[in-house]
């Protein structure tokens, strides 16, 4: 039996696994390979969609299915199979149509598993696709985007974001929403988040909850950090993430994940 048999470590991508230049450094790669060689299961848990992360070279670093769209999707890049897809269906369509009618200036991005659709694109929102080389189709009716969707992203301004959030909260109970960087709002299936995704992935892998660990730096990682057996947060992480950390580790520019694995090495 190997040291880390039955141990799962899920990490956020930007600001945790990678440094501020978007690079997974050699010390982190070496630590992850050591973790995997000794039986550990290593997964990413990101707000990115499958379309975005699949473009990155370090996807080969993961030996467990990847969690996309803040826990809505688990996909195994090695077998090229969906493990689960907790997407939104007609309840998401209702939100998208209402937003399009009430806030015609807000851009709407819809993410079926392997395709992307958009309404009212702005220069800011279009960069979501062009910066990563993701193909997309512009439509006028949200119903033209096949469902389910992993998530919907609403591109707001700083002024309109609180108003749109209140509109969603007051009128829709079958979806949840999360304000994110740059005045975007992510709309997802109700009660789906990185925490539910981590526990569902652990169950799929036969990993007990007390052996499921998480690392993350942002407020969208908080649900995952709360349910994890151990929560590794870089010292330069957000206040929200640091507030629920069980272990404050080195910054993402100094090997967050390498430090987390050093701690796991002592625990096991």
Characteristics:
268 residues, alpha/beta, 6-stranded mixed sheet, 22% strand, elongated
Explain briefly what this protein structure is.
With 268 residues, the chain is α/β, with parallel strands linked by helices.
Describe the structure.
There is one protein chain. The chain has 268 residues and is an alpha/beta fold. 33% of the residues lie in helices and 22% in strands. The chain has 10 helices and 14 strands. The chain has helices at residues 13-17, 26-37, 50-53, 90-102, 123-130, 160-171, 194-205, 222-227, 239-242, 256-267; strands at residues 8-11, 41-44, 66-68, 73-76, 81-85, 107-111, 117-119, 137-138, 151-155, 175-180, 184-189, 212-215, 231-234, 247-249. The strands form 3 sheets. The chain has a 6-stranded mixed sheet with strand order 8-7-6-9-11-10, with helices on one face. It has a 5-stranded parallel sheet with strand order 2-1-12-13-14, with helices on both faces. A hairpin with a 4-residue loop joins strand 3 (66-68) and strand 4. The longest helix is centred in the middle third of the chain and has 13 residues, at 90-102. The radius of gyration is 18 Å and the shape is elongated.
């Amino acid at each position: 039996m190997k040291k880390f048999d039955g141990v799962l470590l899920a990490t956020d991508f930007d600001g945790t696994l990678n440094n501020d230049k978007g690079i997974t450094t050699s010390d982190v790669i070496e630590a992850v390979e050591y973790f995997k060689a000794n039986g550990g299961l290593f997964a990413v848990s990101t707000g990115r969609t499958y379309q975005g992360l699949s473009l990155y070279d370090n996807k080969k670093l993961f030996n467990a299915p990847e969690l996309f769209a803040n826990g809505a999707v688990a996909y195994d890049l090695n077998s090229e199979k969906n493990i689960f897809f907790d997407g939104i269906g007609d309840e998401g369509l209702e939100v998208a149509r209402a937003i399009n009618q009430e806030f015609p200036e807000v851009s709407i991005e819809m993410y079926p598993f392997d395709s992307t659709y958009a309404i009212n694109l702005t220069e800011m929102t279009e960069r979501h696709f062009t910066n990563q080389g993701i193909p997309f189709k512009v439509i006028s009716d949200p119903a033209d985007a096949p469902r389910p969707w992993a998530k919907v992203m609403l591109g707001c301004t700083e002024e309109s974001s609180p108003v749109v959030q209140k509109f969603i909260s007051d009128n829709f109970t079958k979806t949840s929403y999360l304000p994110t960087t740059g005045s975007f709002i992510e709309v997802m299936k109700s009660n789906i988040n990185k925490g539910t995704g981590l526990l569902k992935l652990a169950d799929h892998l036969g990993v007990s909850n007390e052996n499921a660990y998480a690392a993350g730096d942002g407020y969208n990682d908080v649900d995952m950090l709360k349910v994890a057996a151990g929560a590794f947060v870089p010292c330069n992480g957000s206040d929200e993430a640091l507030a629920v950390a069980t272990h404050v580790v080195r910054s993402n520019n100094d090997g967050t994940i390498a430090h987390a694995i050093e701690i796991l090495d002592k625990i096991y």
